[in-house]
Amino acid sequence: MGVSFSQLDRPAQFLKGVGPKRADALAKMGITSARDLLYHIPRRYDDASTLTPIGSLEVGLDATAVGRVRSKGVIPTRRGLRIFQVVLEDETGMITVAWPGQPWLDRKIRNGDTLLVTGPVKFFHGRQIHPREFSTLWRSGDTEPETGTIFVSYPASEDVPQWVLRRILGSNLDELLSWADDDEYLTGAQRSSRRLPGLSEALSALHRPASLSDAEVGRRRLAYDELFFLQLVQAQTRRCATEVEEGITHERSNELIRPLHESLPFALTTAQAAVLRDIYQDMKSKRRMSRLLQGDVGSGKTVVAVFAMLLAAEGGYQAALMAPTEILAEQHARRLSEWLEPLGIDVVLLTGSLTAVERRKALESIESGQALMVVGTHALIQDTVSFSRLGLVVVDEQHRFGVRQRMALVEREGLRPDVLVMSATPIPRSLAMTLYGDLDLSVLDELPPGRTPVTTVMRTPDRRDAVYAFVDEQLAEGRQAYVVYPLVSESEKVDLLSATEEFERLRKEAFPQRRVGLLHGQLRPAEKNEVMRSFLAGDLDLVVATTVIEVGIDVPNATVMVIEHAERFGLAQLHQLRGRVGRGAAESHCIMIAEPGEEALERLKVFRDTSDGFEIARADLRIRGQGDLFGSQQHGRDPLLRFADLMIDEDLLIEAQRAARELVAADPELQEPAQRRMRELLESRYRERLEMYGVG
Ligand code: ADP
Ligand code: MG
To answer: How far apart are the CA of 277 and the centre of ligand 2, in A?
Structure first.
């Protein structure tokens, strides 16, 4: 079946007012078809009623104003700086607008043009506005379209300035809107149950809003569409991973699960119990489990994993737990043994540090199926390790974006074990649903009772000696401490130098009585392990580390984390670092040494005042913006989400996921005639781009 043709597929070149040259310039902005132009929506709206009349612009205000250019010119200054200036006027008065150092604007702006300018009003030979941002709304001589009271500003380029876009849209928009419903894939009933406008209505509201809330209704419609198609691709992936071929139907006897419940020194939290119910249900169904378990540092993910592993073992299946590093694998193995050996269950550890004899022995018991609980590094699944009856793989994943690769690794040799990925970096639910919409999501949103929050403070570098004195007091009480230095971008060598120099200084001058170790990225793995093992064993009092410090490492006796140049760390990283302390009964401290600028200060204050990892993650999303999280910079101009905002559209996302999963369950390949338009849109507009982002 061919794709039905829509006028929207016409090349942009055939639009009114677009010749070959302009078409090239538009193409550089990603606009090649009529549809692209229709979906080129404003990046900014200004409500005329909130603009300041020029006569009322006061020095000290930060204002947005609209006016007509009355005169203009380039003014040289004595120091050689050339300033482009215009006099802008409206019915209420005139003001000078000045662009220091931008004389070339003289060629872009003409007398009679209507400009929108935003910036601070200063006093300099009278009132002046220094624009941070401006656009030419209309060129002199253009007939001003009836816009109502909202000024829209489009993303423009050097070659296609604002006024050109407005002119092209002005002469084509009515026609474009009349074609917009060609792309409609929702029925009227579906739209009204989701409280969404039709496409032509939405696009009209975006280009010519009667009010700001009007534009917002339009935006939500386009946001829903992009979220829906994202979730649709993910629902198809999820179906392939979990349903097309059957997984294992685990059976629960309680033979192992009950004794562990009885012997654990604590009761599960409500959140742990709820998450386990979901996991058991997945494992007992014939669907294959593919689930992401998110939880804050210390929320107790490991014990959840162990119960899941026991369910597999009860039916005679093997379970594997994989950690990103040897140290963490050893740590997991130690904890599992503590819990399981009293119940008569052996835990087999497989890492690169085993002797040849130990390794052969471990491999044999894995191959024979005798080893029910296997712990190792991620190499477990890549290696030549063959399991006899692998029923569950638990992946302890420290890096935010490694999850999908790990899932893929489990697909081999016809094995279809259930998969549980544990992520130690909390991300907001909406972001998790976007990045991992093909997985089921469980969240441990509660910490076990009785934790004392880590005291967090910020100190300027001139108070470093006082910080050291405090650290030394803690060490004198038998505690241990970390001092962490950031990785200065790119230059690993410079870092190494500074961490090494600092190590020497701390060892010789600041803490001469203490046993100080050094940990950095240029050490061989065996050397790193050696330092961490000594620290864990209490043979070192203090570890000086760069960012290689193991996320997830558990040294309960460590009570102080000093973070040098804290302003260079991201929020998630800071939170992970702080998670290294506060793991025992004693009160713990996190001390940031920093001289932050304004931007970093906001981040560090959030960190200082918040201990909840999910709250920190939401603040991170708010401060950095979602574009940063998807790496849209690397992908050029077209971000994964253009219209949806994960901070405010969670309700749309949940609805989109529900609708997509329901549809895929009923009609996996979208074969029904009613889904024809949707299928065409998926293939022509969405799939390729989503795959480029690796979310399909
Ligand atoms: P995570 O891996 O999520 O960071 P862990 O699994 O390492 O957290 O658990 C942190 C600590 O809390 C461990 O010492 C664990 O034994 C303990 N713990 C886990 N669940 C509970 C609970 N329900 N009550 C008390 N302590 C718990
Ligand atoms: Mg199953």
So the answer is: 13
Alpha helices (H) along 94-208: 162-179, 188-193, 199-207
Question: Per-residue pLDDT for 537 more than 80?
Answer: yes
Å from CA of 246 to ligand 2 middle = 8
Q: What is the pLDDT of residue 1?
A: 40
362: Cα within 13 Å, side-chain hemisphere: 21
CATH 2.40.50.140 fits 46-153, yes or no: yes
Q: Is the CB of 290 under 6 A from ligand 1?
A: no
CATH second-level architecture of 257-284+300-423? 3-Layer(aba) Sandwich (3.40)
Q: Tens of pLDDT along 308-317? A: 999 999 999 9
Q: Which CATH superfamily is domain 454-610 in?
A: P-loop containing nucleotide triphosphate hydrolases (3.40.50.300)
- Tokens standing for residue 214: 């009007």
Instruction: Say whether pTM exceeds 0.90.
Output: no
3-state secondary structure 5-41: CCHHHCEHHHCCCCCHHHHHHHHHCCCCEHHHHHCCC
**CA 305 to CA 394: how far, in whole Å?**
7
Q: What is the pLDDT of residues 549-599, one digit of tens each?
A: 766 688 889 999 999 999 988 898 899 899 999 988 889 999 999 988 888
Asked if residue 584 has its Cβ within 6 Å of ligand 1, the reply is no
Question: Residue whose CA is closest, atom 15 of ligand 1?
Answer: 300
What is the number of the ligand 1 atom nearest to the C-alpha of 556?
Answer: 14
Structure tokens at 301: 């993910």
End-to-end CA distance of the chain: 24
Q: Computed over its alpha carbons, how large is the radius of gyration of the chain? A: 30
d(CA 11, CA 211) in angstroms, rounded, equals 31
